[in-house]
Write a structure and sequence with these properties.
about 250 residues, 6-stranded mixed beta sheet, alpha+beta, 9 strands, 3-stranded antiparallel beta sheet
Length: about 250
C-alpha cells in the first residue's frame, strides 16, 4: 500500500489490480485485455465487449447476470455458463437423455422472479452433467437449443483454457519486480508481458512451428542476435541443444 497507493485496497496491508481477459480458444490468444482496479466487478467488463453473431461465449458462474446474458442473446450470439443455486425458475419441457454419457437432464426453463423475467424474458436451456473423472456435477445454462446436451457440457471445458493461459503467463513470463510504481508503469509492464506472448503465438502460426510457445520463447531468448534462418533454428536438433543449455523458466523482468 505504501508503494502502490493508487491501487484498490485488497487487504489492510496490500493493494491489487485485475487483468480481465477474453481468450480466443481456437488460436489460444487473448482477443481482449483490460487492466482495472481490484474493486471493479468482473461481470461489469462484459459491458465493454462487442459480441459477435454466431459465436459462443463460455463464462464462469461469476458472470451470471440476467441483463448481460440477455445482451449476448440479443446480439445473436450464444453463451454457456453455470446456473446459480438459488435461481428461481420453472421447468417448461424435459428432453430425453442418455445418462451413460453423463447428461443427467436436458430441460427448457423460464425464470419465475419478476425482475429476472423482466431482464431475461426468453426461455433458456438447462443441462445437468456429471463428470465421472472429477466426480463433480455441473448445472449449465445456455441460450442454444441446437447443439446436443453433451456438446453443451463439452463446450464448457474450454473455460479452463483461460486458467491455462494465466498459468502459462505466471510460469514463463515471471515478474519478480516492477520497474516503476506508478499506475502507468505497472500497466505498461503487464501489457509488455502479454505482447511477448502474442508475438510468440503469431510467430508460431506464421511459420507453422510445431513446438510449444514456451520452447519458442526460450529459443528466441537465446538466439536474438543469431542470423540462423528460422526454418533451421527450430529443427529438432537445435531445440534439444537449447533445452540442455537452459532448463530454468524464462524471467521476462
Amino acid at each position: 500500500m505504501t508503494v502502490f497507493c493508487w491501487a484498490a485496497t485488497f487487504t489492510k496491508h496490500k493493494a491489487s489490480i485485475k487483468m480481465h481477459t477474453q481468450l480466443d480458444v481456437k488460436k489460444n490468444i487473448p482477443s481482449f485485455i483490460h487492466v482495472s482496479n481490484w474493486s471493479v466487478h468482473d461481470v461489469g467488463i462484459l459491458d465493454m465487449l462487442k459480441f459477435e453473431e454466431g459465436s459462443f461465449y463460455i463464462l464462469d458462474r461469476g458472470y451470471f447476470d440476467f441483463v448481460r446474458l440477455y445482451s449476448i442473446h440479443t446480439s445473436k450470439a450464444f453463451f454457456v455458463t453455470r446456473l446459480k443455486g438459488r435461481t428461481n425458475y420453472s421447468r417448461v419441457y424435459s428432453a430425453k437423455t442418455d445418462r451413460s454419457s453423463g447428461v443427467m437432464c436436458d430441460q427448457t426453463i423460464k425464470f419465475n422472479h419478476f425482475y429476472a423475467k423482466r431482464k431475461y424474458p426468453e426461455q433458456l436451456r438447462r443441462v445437468k452433467y456429471y463428470d465421472k473423472e472429477s466426480e463433480v456435477q455441473f448445472d449449465f445454462i445456455t441460450n442454444n437449443f441446437d447443439l446436443s446436451a453433451l456438446e453443451i457440457a463439452q463446450l464448457y471445458k474450454y473455460r479452463w483454457s483461460i486458467e491455462l493461459f494465466f498459468k502459462w503467463i505466471k510460469q514463463h513470463l515471471k515478474m519478480q519486480r516492477f520497474w516503476g510504481h506508478s499506475e502507468n508503469a505497472v500497466r505498461t509492464q503487464l501489457y509488455i508481458a502479454i505482447t511477448a506472448y502474442l508475438n510468440v503465438a503469431i510467430f508460431k502460426e506464421v511459420h507453422k512451428i510445431k513446438h510449444s510457445n514456451y520452447e519458442i520463447l526460450q529459443i528466441l531468448s537465446l538466439t536474438l542476435l543469431n542470423k540462423t534462418p528460422v526454418n533451421q533454428l527450430f529443427q529438432q536438433h537445435h531445440v534439444n541443444e537449447n533445452e540442455k543449455e537452459n532448463l530454468n523458466q524464462l524471467i521476462l523482468f
